[in-house]
Design goal:
The chain is an all-alpha fold. It contains 14 helices and no strands. The protein has 2 domains: 36 residues; 208 residues, MetI-like (MetI-like fold, Orthogonal Bundle). Helix 1 runs antiparallel to helix 14, helix 8 packs antiparallel against helix 11 and helix 13 runs antiparallel to helix 14. The radius of gyration is 24 Å and the shape is globular.
Length: 278
């Protein structure tokens, strides 16, 4: 018995040590980015390198804002990411509820067709999608950046799997009390699904906040650039000045860190509770 307890204790502490090592490895590049963003031009190239700057150079961030219109890039990214995130979450909620709860002929076939779109590489659909956007006259507009991504098969699949874990008896009891499907979805299903909703919202937000390829294809002017494109534009403008590059990169990733910090509990719970039923 004592041997079994010792093994469990060893496994537990071994897991803690391994996870701590992984956490440190993941955190070091980010800490180095923060440190470099606050260094002067001479200290960046100092040998041996220093983790903590001898003097904080907050003007690095001011230089970034003066060199490129980072405010405009932020605004574009916020607008595009918000529209896509809200739209995908709403459409995923409605579609996932239908696929999980409402029986109709061909339901499973249609659902599998939705899933089949996940295996199609984005690069395959990019050219025909670009031609369509071009013919509609949407190049260099918010429509080009948002309309092709207003729905997402993965979000529908993710929420459907979570909805299937909610007991059907709840809906049957609600029907006996005169509760319609939409009312049940809004007042009962969605409050129970907050971890899954937070998880898929975070997935969508992170995925489109730093999207690079599609905005690069459909935008031409500086006024329509998003953060990912603007960051690359700033690197071309500033050259190999790493303290400015790191300051710009830190400004670009800070909103992602803030959003994850506030949503991490719901995110972890949503991942743990969402099964593969059905």
């Amino acid at each position: 018995m004592s041997t079994l307890k010792s093994r469990r204790r060893f496994t537990k502490w071994g897991s803690y040590i391994l996870l701590s090592m992984v956490a440190v490895i993941m955190a070091v590049p980010f800490l180095w980015m923060i440190s470099t963003s606050l260094k002067g031009s001479q200290e960046v190239y100092r040998v041996p390198p220093t983790l903590f700057p001898s003097e904080l150079h907050w003007e690095n961030f001011t230089h970034v804002l003066d060199t490129v219109p980072f405010g405009r890039f932020y605004l574009n990214t916020i607008i595009v990411t918000t529209i896509i995130t809200v739209s995908q979450v709403v459409t995923a909620i409605l579609a996932a509820y239908v696929f999980a709860r409402i029986p109709f002929p061909g339901r499973d076939t249609i659902f599998y067709l939705y899933l089949a779109t996940l295996i199609v590489p984005t690069q395959v659909t990019m050219l025909p999608l670009f031609l369509l956007i071009s013919r509609l006259g949407w190049i260099d507009t918010y429509q080009a950046l948002t309309v092709p991504f207003l729905a997402n098969a993965f979000a529908i699949f993710f929420l459907r799997q979570f909805f299937l874990t909610i007991p059907i008896e709840l809906e049957d009891a609600a029907k006996l009390d005169g509760c319609g499907r939409m009312r049940f979805l809004i007042q009962i299903m969605l409050p129970l699904s907050r971890p899954a909703l937070a998880t898929i919202t975070l997935f969508i937000f992170l995925g489109y906040w730093d999207d690079y390829l599609w905005p690069l294809v459909v935008t031409n002017s500086t006024d329509m650039r998003t953060l990912a494109i603007g960051l690359r534009f700033f690197i071309d403008e500033s050259g190999a000045q790493f303290h400015f590059m790191m300051a710009a990169a830190l400004m670009a990733v800070t909103p992602i860190i803030v959003v994850f910090f506030f949503a991490q509990r719901q995110f972890i719970e949503g991942i743990a509770l969402t099964g593969t039923k059905g």
